[in-house]
Design goal:
The complex is a heterodimer of chains A (about 450) and B (about 190). Chain A has a domain of about 150 residues. Chain A has 15 helices and no strands. In chain A, helix 1 packs antiparallel against helix 12. Chain B is elongated and about 70 Å long. The chains are: A mainly alpha (about 450), B mainly alpha (about 190). At the A-B interface, helix 2, helix 4, helix 5, helix 6 and helix 7 of A face helix 2, helix 3 and helix 6 of B.
Chain lengths: ~450, ~190
Amino acid sequence: MSASVAAPSPTHAGHEDRSAFGLLMIASLFFVVSGLVALIIAGKFHFPTLLGSVSWLTYGRLRPIHTNGMLFGWLLAADMALCFYLVPRLCGVKLWSEKLGMATMWIWVLIVLAAVVTLALGQNQGLEYAELVLWIDVLVVVAWVMFAVNVFATVFTRKYQQMYVSLWYIMASLLWTAFVYIVGNFGTMPTTGVNQANLNWFYVHNAVGLIFTPLGLAIGYYFIPKAAETPLYSHRLSMIGFWSLAFVYVWTGAHHMLHGPISQWLQTVAILFSIMLMIPVWTLVWNFFATMKGQWHQLKDNVPIKFLMTGTIFYLLTCFQGPMHSLRTVNAIVSKTDWIPGHAHMAVLGAFSFFAIGGAYYAIPRMIGAKLHSNQMANTTFWLWLVGGLTFFVSLWIGGFLQGLQWNDVTIPFIDTVKFMSPFWAARLLGGTLMFLGILLFFWNVLMTYVGRKERPAETA
Amino acid sequence: MLSKIDKSSALFITAAVVFFWIGGLLTTLAPPLLDASWAKPVAGLKDHATLAKGGDAEAAMIMKGRAIYVREGCWYCHTQQTRTIEADTVRSGWRGVKSPVSTPDEFVYDQPHMFGTRRVGPDLSRVGGKYDHQWHVTHFRDPRSLVPGSVMPPFPWIIADPQEQEALIAYVQSLGRVKDWRPAQDYEQ
């Protein structure tokens, strides 16, 4: 294989990490809130009248708060925070502007609070992941431009000429996201019907594929070699993975409308490219696994590595399911069932949140120069998330798959297929509760690390 | 070329955007140009938004009901698409008649589209006229009184507002009616 490349080592550039840590704290707080909302709406599947007499606590109002909260309040904010941490380190310079970073953080807080209030009031644009009203969309664009300026200005003033693979993913994500977000939130305004649905699904798919995927992978590429203190296995593989992702991912949005009222040829294009997605995924997973060669014993007590490598496995599974769902025969069973939320939760919580939490546990002590409040607690977070997550995902896959088979047997009344799901939803609620406990521990650990930072200074500054 | 691309940020940015835009533009701008059927309404399809602006009371009612459907997130649990799957046409059908599959020309004026993504409850693409007015009133007030085992929430604040109640039911009753697929016009009122 080609020569191994080390992630550039930290320099003494004097990183302040104020915006990185601030944004991470905010993200963890929103993580708790979104998790709580998640438990309430999961509970409503068993007690449909739970909190049901108040309009703003009903399922239809809380669900977008949960999805937007997890995606943008927690995960994107955490990813941005980790970018603020790792971009300057990979460039060998300080973050271009901490002030701009802090301003980005405060706008993000404003966006999330505004989102919660408007969604609770029922101000919903009616498009998945693009529910937020126009003025909040504009704020998101402003915040994203501020974030991008900071990252690019840091990259342009870098000391190391060669850009490590994490930087490619981050820079590309900044540019792609601009296009994806504008199509999904503004391009849908003058369009209607199937044309609008096509743009909507382009956005929904690429929000995961070209925002959370590249940022998550950038985190994996940076923190796996760092946390395991071992060089990345192959530069060439990372290049194949990146450029194939850049070309292939964007074509696949229409696979959300398979068998639906959208042109057959567009469905076929989406299917073909969905299968090709295996190229970037498998090259990346190969690279991460080969990096760990001879280092697997670290899984025993290196908590960030536990999170990062489990995230890698979830990523592999998610991205194996994706192309499989795109096959028309499989899609005819699983589409519109609970299998799909099982898949989506594994992508966002399983793969990318595992990356983000692993990165955060590694980075936080280095951001504030203090040892982590409790390694034991971090380890417990991992096990709660692994057991809770698997319970959650697997129960929805099994239940969803069987429900799909039942739907295709028209002798079974629809309502019987709903009642059939009850035990699987109960397992989802149980798994979700374990994950929520994990979120609480994560938040508490981060908070206490900050509160007690003076008592536990890091051994090496 | 490849050896230089990770050293020059300008070169990298250009390549990343070009690679992405090939698919990005072809899958967003090209399809509606290549497939004219997306924009061609089926015969008899009404543009309720425009009619409502012109003073059509029935169209205004349907648009108000549609806004409630969007506001309450009904579309998170109900799809509006009878897919090209045999079972869909049976389940969307009524009284032994299979429903036609959904086609783009039925949705030309939909803004936002309500195709949906998940079926916690049944698909609604052909629900118009399957149940009568009083059934819907009772169902929105207490879904389980009519469908034991249902997980749909009650909507007391809509039932408490006669205008909202009438509008939402008018919208639901309008769904899927443009393709006149029912023999003998046996729609419930």
